[in-house]
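2024-03-11 09:14:02 INFO receiving multi-entity request
2024-03-11 09:14:02 INFO entity count = two
2024-03-11 09:14:03 INFO echoing inputs for audit
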Amino acid sequence: MERSARSVWASGVWDRLAGGNALAFFFAWFICLAVLAVSLVILWASFNPGRPFELRFGFDNYIKALDQSLFAEVLPNTILVGLGTVATVFFFGFPLAWLLNRTNLPMRAFCISLIAVSVIVPGLVKAMGWIILLSPQVGLINQFLVNIFGLESAPFDINSIGGIAFIQGLMLTPTLFFLLSGPMRSMDPALEEAASVSGASTWTSARWITFALLRPAVLGGVIYTFMTAVAIFEVPALLGGFADRPVLATRLYVAVRPPGGFAAVNYGIAGVYGLLITVPSLVALYFYFRTIQQSHRYAVITGKAYRPKIYDLGKSWPMGLLFVLLYMTLAVFLPLVVLVWLSLLPSVRMPSVEALSLVSLRWYRDIFFLVGGFEVIRNTSVLVLTTSVLVLGFSFMVSWVVVRTRLPGRRALDTIAMLPHAIPGLAFAFGLLIIGILGVRLIPWLPFYNTIWIMVAANLLNRLSYGTRITNAAFVQIGQELEDAAAVCGARKSTTMLRVIVPLVGSGLTFAGLWTALLVFREVSIPLLLLGPNNKVLATQIWVLWESGHVAQASAVSVVLVSVMAALLILIQKLTGRIGAAQQLA
Amino acid sequence: MLKVVNLKKAYTSEAGKVGAVEGVDFEVQAGEVFALLGPSGCGKTTTLRCIAGLETPDSGQIWIGDRPIYDDRSKLVVPVHRRGVGMVFQSYAIWPHMTVFDNVAFPLVRGGFRVSKSEVKERVNNALRLVQMDGFGDRPAPLLSGGQQQRVALARALVYEPQVLLLDEPLSNLDAKLRQGMRLELRELVTRLHVTTIFVTHDQEEALVLADRIAVMQNGLLKQIGSSRDVYLRPTNGFVAQFVGDANVIAGHIEKLAANGGMGVVQSPIGRLSCWLPKSMGVNEKVTVMFRPESPVLHAERRHDAPNIFPGSVKRVVFVGSRLHCDIEIGSVLIRGEMPSWFEISAGQAIDVELPPARLQVSPG
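2024-03-11 09:21:47 INFO inference complete, emitting structure
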């Protein structure tokens, strides 16, 4: 077959573009450069004392931000919240991971699924439920105890550093659970048997072998939990108030959305707070990876699928089951039941015969109006769908370049894709806010600032690290030979991607996509910071209703939010059947 | 030294109860090297783990010396860490978070054999010297090669001078060349220390080289116990014959019994075979006649001066270096023979095959 020189040349260019890695390379670098750019904007904003579009440079923001209250109040509060959260997370997470992975507790698989399912009650909803239960003024448990024992004042105060740490601990326990489950399950049982044969008792063997081998995973878990805990915004905002118990995350929010109105906005100071959260996280992330790398050295890999040694709980198994139940009650059932109860009432009331007579579905009849009408439903759908598709697409491209090619710079690409793991979503949202304001000045016709797309962008960047971890793992599992075999048969790179790779990683991608949808749907701090009149979503509606004192209405919308997430979760289970196998829920 | 009586152990799986060990008896003398040999799933590892205490049997008794460590009649189960046996695991189970020294010292420092600090140092160094790993004490465990890990695992099992040493597939994770070297070294070490050793293997050559006595297992039962020589040359059933080395197996029945110490005659598809028959066999009883590939004697010219000579034709000759493998057809039966590599033979050739009666093993069935 003869072809003209021109058509050969043209097909050569086409082959190089579609047949080579150019496409993946372009998109991978596009998204990673965006991550870098937004990170640099945060840095730049902290040095800019004026409005975003005034190109000035100075240390005024730092001088203003690093004041006495920061060192006396904000930093100690933030650190206490972090440490308290870590303590709560370990109190629940470590025993849960051990009970459900290494003992003969009955119904283990079911319990693991339960813990994964607890993701449907987001931190905002947990915090609301617990405020209703334990606030010193209206708290149902407090009132109950005061009445029963004739106390003078409420015994519990959820509006405290301890309360924040408690709620955040309940939130992050599943993450630690799944972080520890992998190492606990993949341990060679012979390592523990060897200790027993050497004459070590069960406790000695657990202390010096099992726990010692888990040390890198535990250390990683501590660092990761602390990092995440200090960056959570919605819980300290609800429980601490903005003024009473300020932490860095709430200070950042107040600097951008001051209660005093637009005139008090100070983007520069917000930038400083953003950096104060981000920099320690980056340092922690570095150590996190150091330990993870070492943990590879810790692993004795023989390519065998281990069945870990299972401890016999004997007669104390009901205690174990009770512990699982305790966690689920505190983290899921109790807050949810309270909110359902509240959503059926006109306002907050103790359960009583009188209250029972007031029960009605009134708020649910008005639910379309309460969630904000068609506009909010449309915004939320667009946000969830586009973000998931974009996260998947970009993660696929990044992992392709990182795992599947020998292109220069792929290491850097992988590291940049991990940055959103360390930079809190709030900081990303802040960076995009600045970009959005600049955009209004420079390209006013672009629909970005004050639209749903700025939220899509912030969530996309925030979820990129999670997406690439899953796609990286999926690609590593597929042998290079499968791809080479397609190439030998004469398939283009794009054909190979579509016909060989995508079908093979399909299940993993579906899981990643749906899980991303779930997490974006419940994300509240990013949309709150970027909230304007035209981009309300369901999660922000709850916040707005609650803050304006419409507690019962907010409860009804929360119940709707939780129900939608439950439906999504059932879909995930139906399509991929691996909820219990979720390795990472962050 | 070690006695196992009527040991039974079943597992419950999706398919119901599966017997892993279904009544095993054996006794190991002090200082003896004893092999449990069999294909995977035959129950050999389960037997070893029952002795170590890592599995609890369903019934039976186990003694170490005159001390019972398991007895179903008195419900006695001595826990693993009180049995005082040494064990080397298939994966070696070297603790990756410790140095070589800490690994070997563990039984003496944290285990059931605690001694004073100065003694720990001395005994660990002695144990490391024993396995030729002296000077490696400070090395972190993950930096060891497979062969070194095996030596450390052995040092750790020997450092407290256990009465019984258990080895689970000790050489299976090493490459072929290293395995041959270690085999001899291991044999020499346990003989020198005079430690009673029980090891599990699926490799018949390993069992033959290492063990004083071999127990061949199949489907949870012992098929034969005997010295390496016995098991190889006098297999008592078809399974043992074919699992330990190559074997030609021919079915037949007894035509004539031995008269006053002479040989009997077995009628088989290749013809009438004169053999030494075991006692307690009757005429017309079905038997299996077995012989090793190296047993037949081949004659290029016709011979009539010896018993059991059959005319055959050479079907295939394969040169494997040190030997020739040849397939020879006698009547409709194909037998395998092994000849020295210098033997002149080619496919299609007619040849006389002599099967000396002393090399034929007859067993019932």
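2024-03-11 09:21:48 INFO post-check: Chain B has a mean pLDDT of 89.
2024-03-11 09:21:48 INFO post-check: Chain B touches chain A at residues 52-54, 79-87, 89-97, 106-107, 110-113, 142, 153, 156-157, 160, 173 (CB under 8 Å).
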